[in-house]
Amino acid sequence: MADYTSLEQIRLQKIADLRAAGVEPYPTRAERTHTSAQAVAALDAVAKDSQVTEQISATLAGRIRATRPMGKLTFAHIEDGAGKIQLFLRVNELGPEKMEFFSKFFDIGDFIQASGTLMRTKTGEATLLVREYKMLAKAVSPLPAAKDETLEDGSVVRHAALEDPELRARRRYADLAVNPHIRENFRKRAAITKAIRAFLDANDFLEVETPILQPLYGGAAARPFTTHHNELNQDMYLRISFELYLKRLLVGNLERVYEIGRDFRNEGVSFKHNPEFTQLEFYAAYFDYQKVMELTEAMIGYVCDTVFGTREFAFDKDENTHYELDFSAPWQRIEMRQGILATSGIDIAEHPTAESLFQAIVTRHPDKKPDPHITRGKLIDFLLGEFLEPTLIQPTFLYDYPRDISPLAKPKPGDPLTVERFEGYVAGFELCNAFTELNDPLDQEQRFLDMQSDYRDDEEEKNPLDEDYLRAMRYGMPPNGGFGMGMERLTMLLTNNRTIREVMLFPALRKED
RNA sequence: GGGCGUGUAGCUCAAUGGCAGAGCAGCGGCCUUUUAAGCCGUUUGUUGAGGGUUCGAGCCCCUCCACGCUCACCA
Question: Among all strands, which nt has the closest C1' to A501 (CA)?
Fold first, then answer.
């Protein structure tokens, strides 16, 4: 049983007293004729200069966010899904009993239904002059009630707003209830997802759903979550990517497919990582990575235009780092080799082996400590992260990646160490990852085998060999380009949120106690 | 997993090793156009948990827990 605070015990007593007085604190039915915004609009539609307008009757419903009792009258603000509106309760309309009942039993956080006529106060604020009211749902726990102070210049200062990041994440319901800008983040996130769908649908992509529970995992270098199916008596994995299933569909003559859904990666948590996140992947037959770059520019541009009406976005990386991002096409394109050469002084083309590249790194940058046992591709990735990545602020396609860290990408013609792959970088972190997909079943099989030997057995991101995927590819897979992007990362960039937590409703946290 | 930091009332925050406080919220009273309404009065605490040092610990030490920043990890 819950431990109730003294504040909660008072409210529990109010619930008991309400029931004793024959008033149900959680009635089953509710009514409303106007949202707060509709009520304001209805009032705006009539003459604005009359003190008491022609009578517009309205029934509103919402949550009490503030009360200002002054003797025989009380002002209150209620909030509904459309915004806030003021209530005006006065003994003249309600009579002394209902006035007293309101002040005795209604608290901030309660849901109320109020009927009356719309009016303007002497300051001009649209207000419901209440003639009847009804408790819709009594709140037991007090909302962390912030107070908004409107200064003379019109700016709003919040006092005692719920800010503790842990409390806000654990009790997202309370966070959402009292912090309207948090609700707005998630409205924007939904609009972004919707725009992505609209764009891909309009470009003849078919939205599909592939297994989340998989007998094998693959398509990314990540450790999976493992679970078990009792009846089948076999271990299952939560997917770490959609890639291998979506590309099976290209074998089946579905030329353009996409999926938006959850991926699960059993790895660390950071400002840009959560164990489960929403991924977009699409695959298009007869595309190569150049065409995917162009489609990416168009897709992100479409999202910017339709959701935000601009392609320029402010992004505060941290308190002292402020970026103005421009998503206009074309994005900057940087070849991996040139980018690493420019930022680290090392030409990876001159070092075709891991040993040679390792020596070059420790010679030129003695302060850096790459793991001496990793592959050439991972050393290149090390250089990327250390030197190049932090410089990629404006939207940039970094292209042509090492083969050994890209087992599903197609080789660059004439360059056996390099594959046709790009990643989109914005504000110094990875937004998306794409390549010309490998469709040669014999090469693919060799890549799987190479990975078995390149990775130590205890490296948990070592992917198992997916025999059925190879079998699918042997039936013939059209040349195609594929793309993956974390939807939270895109949302972070477009809504100026520097942590993934702010764009996920329920980010992963350790359990309490 | 490592390093640094934070944890005090429902919320936001104070408190040289010396009586645990403020504003808001709450409760009682006054107040018929307020909007952080105002005025008077007043309550609220396992100071994250446990142990230690000390005459005395919110404060110093140790262990643990949660969160934050950061590093590692994350093709």
Answer: B68
